[in-house]
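Narrative of activities, Objective 1.

The group set out to show that a structural description can be obtained from nothing but a protein's sequence at a throughput compatible with the screening campaign. Below is one input-output pair from the validation batch, recorded exactly as produced.
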Amino acid sequence: MTPRHNPARTAVRRALRGTRVGAIGGLLLALVSPALSAQAVATPAAIDSSRRTAIVTAVERLAPAVVSVSVAARQQVAVRSSWADMFVPRYSSQLVRGSGTGFLIRSNGVILTNQHVVAGAEQITVTLRDGTQLPARLVGADPVADIAVIQVSGRNLPTVPLGRSSGLMVGEWVIALGNPYADYLGNTEPTVTAGVVSATGRNILPSEGQAGLYLDMIQTDAAINPGNSGGPLANALGEVVGVNSSILSNSGGSIGLGFAIPIERALHVADMLLTTGAVRRAWTGLDVAVPQNFDEWRAQNGPTVASVAPGGPAARAGLQPRDVLVSADGRMLHNQLDWESVKLDLNVGDTLQLVTRRGASTATRTLIASDLPTRTAARVTVLQDLQLVTITPAIRAERGVQGAEGALVVSIAPRTAEATGLREGDVIVGLDRRRVTSATDLRTFFDELQQGQSFRIWVERDGQTAYTDLVYR
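Output recorded for this entry:
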């Protein structure tokens, strides 16, 4: 039988031709030629090249612009003996230190981070990658979107490449950078974790006391731990697609459920904060029913309109209570959070095409978002730095006020708040035995007060009415 031709065996024979073969301890030893050795053994250069993955390259682009954010915040604990004491609380306070992460988006020192990282901060310190520590000032913050902008003094500072979250694919690689243990790790290099996009468009059910609305979030299994908040989530190209914000965990550590705010929303909020120092949100003039239990949250029937503000955008569009919101600009609305997500990114003047269901029929309605009634209402200033607006049906609907009359506190200086116990959002409904029907009633009342005269002020707060006695000084 003729042996079959084996190309691999022939190649080895050719490579071994001319080499010396000997036996040592019964083992066959071949002194292989240098050409075969180069093919069989990878060189250090080849190994180094294989180590330089897309993730390594992405981190090199991002890391120089990632910073550590350290804050010192005054934490106050109010000790009250009764509901009536809410205007004259006794406080004990202490300075609490915290930390988080941020990243440079402009070379002049503008940094993006989470609002909850810098909430209540009296002092903010930023540490750059090279260890340089710089004082930072708060430009502005938005608790609803959980985004804040801070700034340090600097020129030609490194910035992160910015991408988009809208094109993210479930399963693609992402990288999270942050400073989970601040200075405890002994250096200022950011910590890098990698994972995949687990899901997009995640809405997180609000918890008690939660100020932010975490909607349309990017879910990732890249480890995100406390201290990573405010850091960048980037794609494999090193482009930032989100702001690391929260985790779901019973232990407080990462279990593969991390969430990031889409970068488009974060930058939109940042632009408003840099331009005006505040976020100008649009008003739709309608409220939807809030689910009362988990089964209602899981319902996929669409949010039901609970109330429509008289003369507001929804009323002008023809919406009525008990209408069901089916979709907005082609986006299906399953529950209240889907509707809140639409509102969160809505600008004044934007047009929404709403598909609604009323009974067995559906209709398409055009809603034009407007400015908040409290922004357009005439303001009255008393006590130099207490600003009020008259309660109207639209303002009542916007703020969820129970009473039909009164003066809403829209702005108050800290010193006046401390002296009077009033705070933003309070509705002043009475002064001594007078009923307050407008903000001008307060101006008239204070114009008539004499130095040292005491008076009683009645206030609606969180749906309850209480009073306190003050002295005009």
